[in-house]
Amino acid sequence: MSTIFTKIINREIPAKIVYEDELCLAFHDVNPQAPTHVLLIPKKEIPRLVDATAEDAALLGHLMLTANKIAQQLGVGDAFRLVVNNGADAGQSVFHLHLHILAGRAFKWPPG
Ligand code: AMP
Predict the structure, then answer these.
(1) Which of 16, 44, 58, 88 lies at a C-alpha separation of 20 to 30 Å from 52?
(2) Which residue, judged by its Cα, is nearest atom 15 of ligand 1?
(3) Which residue intervals of the chain are DSSP H helices?
């Protein structure tokens, strides 16, 4: 089932887009949890990470390398955190796979 992120991909609702290629799109989170908080999503509708298959291996690799590229582009390449919430109990609220790219403040470990 499509989510609000598909509407962003299709330009049906606005977003502050920072990166796009044929496989993925990145835009600023509307409710940022850090000075830099960007969401990176595949254009393919994969609801959760657990729904990805071996067929998606190249796409998942592309997302990781693109997260790196975006962090460099945003000038936060030396210190950033990637988060994937998988499932409602892990904090996932939008069921279209996405990587949170967070930077610009100190991060605690273990995460909350
Ligand atoms: P998660 O809780 O991991 O599913 O993350 C979903 C994220 O999407 C949250 O951080 C929301 O603030 C963000 N979000 C929801 N709607 C939008 C939107 N229209 N544009 C940008 N970010 C959004």
Answers:
(1) 16
(2) 30
(3) 4-9, 57-73
